[in-house]
Amino acid sequence: MSDHYYTNNPNSTHDEQQISATILNQSFTFNTDSGVFSKDAVDFGSRVLIESFAEHTTNIENERILELGSGYGPISLSLAKHYPNSHVIGVEINERAYHLAESNKLANRINNVEFVLGDGTSFLPDELVQYCLTNPPIRAGKQTIQAMVKTGFESLEDNGEIWVVIQKKQGAPSMQKFMEELFGNVERMNRDKGYWILRSIKESN
């Protein structure tokens, strides 16, 4: 059986390295390894998601932000540093990626983020959140990534927002339709090199 980055405990031989990145005008160093998503550089789709979210969401104060499928932590850590009064939760099923995220939290001295070793298709936070973001593991299949979006829906408080990045060629139109059916609304907030940024709002009953 092939070893994927969304595996709970990847078996691939370790190949630890450190990469540098500038995100939202902040400098980061990230420890990465084999068996995790986008180990050689911060994924372009993740960058587009971070930048689009920050562009359209400028007044975050004391809010709770959830990321499903946080990998070694670039999205959660970038948002935590950009919104220092927020509380960010990153959920990751891959044990290797989870431990890297914890080390990256320490290396970048970011305290308003917590990482949880858990399944993004079923994890629910102790308190509802105002925002949920995900760059879902496309290779895990349509059922899995739709389950992650459903989990995001259940995790949001009324009027909370979910932000999803997905390539057009990897199912963005289908995801857009799914989010419209689940939330009753969806908007494409950005499109860059084939990546779509989709946002839905959990409307109050």
Describe the structure.
The structure is a single chain. The chain is globular and about 45 Å long. It has 5 helices and 9 strands; from the N terminus they run E-E-H-E-H-E-H-E-E-H-E-H-E-E. Strand 1 and strand 2 (26-32) form a beta hairpin. The chain is 30% helix and 30% strand. 45% of the residues are buried. Helix 1 (44-56) packs parallel to helix 2 and helix 4 (142-155) packs parallel to helix 5 (172-183). The chain has a 7-stranded mixed beta sheet, with helices on both faces. A two-stranded antiparallel ribbon has the order 1-2. The chain has helices at 44-56, 74-82, 95-107, 142-155, 172-183; strands spanning 17-23, 26-32, 64-68, 87-92, 113-117, 129-134, 156-167, 187-192, 195-201. It is an alpha/beta fold and 205 residues long. The longest helix has 14 residues, at 142-155.
**Percent of residues in helical segments?**
25-40%
Q: Encode the helix/strand succession as letters.
A: EEHEHEHEEHEHEE
Largest sheet: 7 strands, mixed
| Adjacency order of strands in the biggest sheet | 5-4-3-6-7-9-8
Mean pLDDT: 92
Q: What's the count of strands? A: 9
Regarding quaternary structure, how should these chains be classified? single chain
Distance between the termini: 45 Å
Beta-strand residue percentage = 25-35%
- Low-confidence segments, given as residue ranges, are 1-6
Helix vs. strand class: alpha/beta
* Shape descriptor: globular
Compute the gyration radius: what is it? 16 Å
Number of helices: 5
